[in-house]
Amino acid sequence: MKRIGILFMIIGVICLGVFGYQLIGHEQSQKQSLIQAEEKIEQGATSQAESDQDIEQTIETFETEEDEAFATLEIPKLEKTLPIVEGTDPDSLQKGVGHLSNSVFPGQGEQILLSGHRDTVFRDFGELEIGDTFIVQMPYGEYTYEIKETEIVPEDDTSVIREMGEEVLVVTTCYPFHFVGNAPERFVAYAYPVSE
């Protein structure tokens, strides 16, 4: 009986070690991505100031590479600034908030879809409420969005990804927020541009 107890203790320590290693890896990847995103934003601001190119043309022609950190998402209520990475595959989501490649970028007048893990970048996401804001800092400017509605959908519901006929920032994560294992649902926040 004593051996079984020791075995369980060893297994527990190994599990904690693996979890800690993964958590540290995620945090390091996010820090590197945030640095890369901030550099991209700085380069964009500098080149825009030196260029004769119209800002509208810059917005319309903006592109980024898969897996590249290119912008930041600020969540004032949670006091977080997170890197936005192109793509929503596991590698991209390990580095930060993923931008669905099929969706547009801020300023392009349609659905912008961002996704992230509830236990890494979107930890404490359950504290957000209607009226809270997201601020997206792009290489060509800053965009503020206010959460107007939220919904919970099954994990395989792809109807969230659609043309909306207007600019909407759609931010998704797994739900329930404190679920252990693969969550069966997705929490979706719809945020609309705040006119200045």
TrEMBL record:
Pfam families: Sortase. PROSITE patterns: ARGE_DAPE_CPG2_1 (PS00758). It comes from the Bacteria. InterPro entries: ArgE/DapE_CS, Sortase, Sortase_D, Sortase_D_1, Sortase_dom-sf. Keywords: Hydrolase. NCBIfam families: class_D_sortase, sortase_fam. This is Class D sortase.
